[in-house]
Every structure is written in C-alpha cells, then in structure tokens.
From TrEMBL:
SUPFAM superfamilies in the record: FAD/NAD(P)-binding domain
Membrane-spanning intervals of the chain: none
Organism, scientific name: Nocardioides kribbensis
PANTHER family, A to Z: FLAVIN-BINDING MONOOXYGENASE-LIKE PROTEIN (AFU_ORTHOLOGUE AFUA_4G09220) (PTHR43539), FLAVIN-CONTAINING MONOOXYGENASE (PTHR43539:SF78)
Signal sequence, renumbered to the chain: none
Organism domain of life: Bacteria
Name under which the protein is recorded: MSMEG_0569 family flavin-dependent oxidoreductase
Keyword Oxidoreductase: yes
NCBIfam families found in the cross-reference section: MSMEG_0569_nitr
Record keywords: Oxidoreductase
InterPro entries documented for this protein: Auxin_biosynth/cation_transpt (IPR050982), CHP04046_FMN-dependent (IPR024000), FAD/NAD-bd_sf (IPR036188)
Amino acid sequence: MTTVHTTVVVVGGGQAGLATSWCLTRDGIDHVVLEAATAAHEWADTRWDNFTLVTPNWHCRLPGYAYDGPDPDGFMTRDEVVAWLGGYAATFDPPLREHTRVTTLRQGEAGGFVLESTGPDGETTWSAEHVVVATGGYHVPIVPPWAAALDPGLTQLESAHYKRAADLPDGGVLVVGSGQSGTQIAEDLHLEGRQVHLALGDAPRVARTYRGRDCMTWLADMGLYDTAVAQYPGGLAAREKTNHYVTGRDGGRDLDLRLLASQGMRLHGLLAGGRGTRLEFRPTLTAALDAADATYNSICADIDRWIEREGIDAPPPSRYSPVWTPDADPLELDLAAAGVTSVVWAIGYRPDYRWVGVGAFDGSGRPTHHRGVTAVPGLSFLGLPWLHTWGSGRFLGIARDAEHVTATIRESVGARPQVRRVS
C-alpha cells in the first residue's frame, strides 16, 4: 500500500470539487482531487436524453470559467453541459486522479486526516491537513420499502436511471414525485405518447418567464440567490425545501400539470402504499395543485413589487388561473387495469457519508457546518444544496462557496493568492 501526503485532499471531481481545485491551484496550495469515476460524470450518467438545465445558461459560472456561448438566456441540454464542463479542467490542469474511490476518512492520531482509496494503482493511504468533501448531497435514491411488494412483472427504476421512453416496456408509466426530475420525466414520457400517471408530492412551481424576462433572472436581480439561508423564514429549515418545478426544454416553458392533465396525463395525490398491482393515494391532489399555483403567483407578486420599487419598464402583471381542476382526489389505482407496466421513482435522495468516520453530522446523517466549514478543524463540505444560499446548489453559487472554504484553508496554511490568476 502506497502512502502519500498532501496539504489538501478534495474528494469528488464534479463542479464543486473542480472549483475548489481551481482556487487551491491559484493559491499555490498542494492538493489532490480524488474522483471515483470521471470528472463531472454524473451529468452524463444520471440525466435523461432530453434533459435541459432549468436555470439560464448565464447562471453557469465557475471560478475562472463561465458560459460564453451565443444563448445566455437559453438552457443547455445534457450533452451541452457535459461539453461545457469538460472544458473546465483544461483551463488550469488540476491534480485530478480519476477512478479513485475514497473508502474511508478518519482523523489522524497526530492531527489532520487519513484517507484510504482504491484506484488503478491499487490501494493508497493519504494523509492531509485539510479535506474538502465535494461529493454532493444526493447519494442514495429514496424508494419506499414496500416497493418490493409490488408486482414483480413491473419495471421499477430510479430517476437517475431513466434515459428515454423507448427503454421502458410498452404500456403506461407511473412517475412518483413532482419535484424537478419527476415532473420533467413525466412530461418527457407524455410527449413520447405514453399514458402517464404522476403521483404528486408538495413541490412548488414557478413561471418560466414573467413580464418579459426569465423568472430566475428577476430573482437573481432581486438578490434571492445571494441571501444566506439563515435569513430565510424558518432559517436552516429552508435546506429541506424542494426546488420549484419548471423546464428549460424547447427554449423554456412552464411545467403546468393542470394543462398536462387536460391533455390526458393522470394526476394523483401522495402515494401512500401498495402491494401487487394495487396502489393507495392520500387525498392531497387538489391541495398540492393549489399550493403549487399559490407559490407561482406569490413569486410573480414579489417580482411585481420589485419592478414597481425599481421603476422598471416591463409588460403588465398577470396571474395564473387554473386550466383544469380534478373532479375528485383519486385514492386507488390498479396498475394492471390501467395498463401501467413501469414505475419511475423520483422521490428524492438522501446523503450517504458512512465512509466519513469523523463526528461532523447531525442525527439525520447530514453534515453540520457554517458555509461548508465544520467544527472539526480542517474538514469542509462543498456542493450541497443551500450550503450557504439558494444559489449554492446551482452553478451560480459554487464559486462563492469555494472561495470561502479555500480562504479558510489558505489562512490555516499561510498561503497567499497568486497575483496571476489561473484562466
């Protein structure tokens, strides 16, 4: 077994890990980036064929690197995101080791940290003064335990494994979850002519464009993506909120589940349980649709107030009015009778840090931190949703988060930023 010492080990070679490496490279701090697969691989591996960003392209900013294409207000496709991210490492040549999985992290007896990894060169032990965990917060898909009791003839898969409608057997599809992935996958299947059943959670929604501009551009101007999580109503509880559903497909549009229902999509409330081919739902459909629309209109009202306060010349305001309402909340579904042959689980993910043997977590297994820096000296996290602001889980906020975390490292090791920035 090889033993290697470095000042900083960055675990994860996605956008957060690469952004951290850019800052450390600029500051002349010795480090290594350990990536279990390939850099930024999840964009290619866990998104479906017709995936697009839901944030405008101009949001795509990393330290020393920003989208500079011809459509800043458009939405890159999966393959375009992969290509854009693929060009980042070449701008500063990070000390990246791909196909190297960290299996354990623990504190060293004499201080610092010890990590074990496996890779192309076998097993390696790393010692470091600092560790930045940049593996994100979406590790294990949430699937209810009773899913195993459903008819074995059903095809079941998690949203990360969905690629295209043609991969699923003929027949209807039940999508469980109405967050960003669930609603977009449901629409993708609907556009491919499939009979789709969608079980809604409590996700809110937002208009794609309002009063002449993309809503996310308005919200950025209003400072929503720069506001610290502690300043939001409920404080840190905002980290548990589900993101608003909308799509960037075909140039961007609202995801109006009522409209899709009027076109034949079958909507249901929260999925409560099931066995064989029989499913039970809670009577939450009407309330879920109403709550999502209320959020939609509330955000529009916030934009109205901003426009008025700033004296901006913009098209007149409007509000969403329902184009379809359910006659009743359906409480049961026989999958066989409805012709449903597949289930796509899009409930969400939970973190899995079992390889981190350091006491920096709360009772739910999530790291406790302030702006990514934990109470354990030298241990930080990056790439988490709401790490510091709403923008933290997006390209828009990664640079600021990486700068903050690497600044604490720089202060600890006594390094100074180099005058010439890496480009």
